[in-house]
Amino acid sequence: MQTRASRETPLDRFNAAPADEAVRTLLTCLHSRRWARRLAAHRPYPDLAALLAAADEAAYDLTARDLAEALAAEALPSLPDDIYAVAHTALGAASAAYESRFGHAFVICLDGLAPDEILDQVLAGIRSRLANDPEEERVVAAEELRRLAGGRLRRLPAAPR
Questions:
Q1: pLDDT tens string 134-152
Q2: DSSP 8-state symbol, 47
Q3: N or C: less crowded end of the chain, CB within 10 Å?
Q4: Which residues of 108-133 are buried (b: 16+ CB within 10 A; e: fewer)?
């Protein structure tokens, strides 16, 4: 016989969690306190699609301060272990140039890429985005953060499948 607890989904547990616990969980997906509090306050979500839609909407509403808070918590994506040292050097130099120009870490969503495509995608992304003006890059970085948050929400151990 199944008990109510055994029928409870991860989304049910997220919906029922204390607000501070839900906020802490959400901050692992996108480090904007306003974004996380907004999503936690609008619980319960009927399904993952509704949570993802709310996350997207809240991410589109990030202020410059919210975006700066979220970007400050990001780091360059990690590379596969078998990447050559010269590639790490090239990535380090490109990353330093990007951070010097824009004042925050380069963010890019790499969901769905094969491991052997990651380095090329990151380097090409940094190089092409270095040509952006700061306002244009703020918009691109915000979109990448939104995509990262959605992917992280899908991968949370508590996310419904």
A1: 999 999 999 999 999 999 9
A2: S
A3: N
A4: bbbeeeeeeebbeebbebbeebeebe
pTM attached to this predicted model: 0.83
Predicted local confidence at residue 2, as pLDDT = 47
Domain count, the chain: 2
Q: How confident is the model at residue 6 (pLDDT cuts 50, 70, 90)?
A: low
Give the CATH number, domain containing residue 115.
1.10.3330.10
Handedness of CA 151, 153, 55, 79 (dihedral sign): negative
The encoded tokens of residue 137 equal: 């890059």
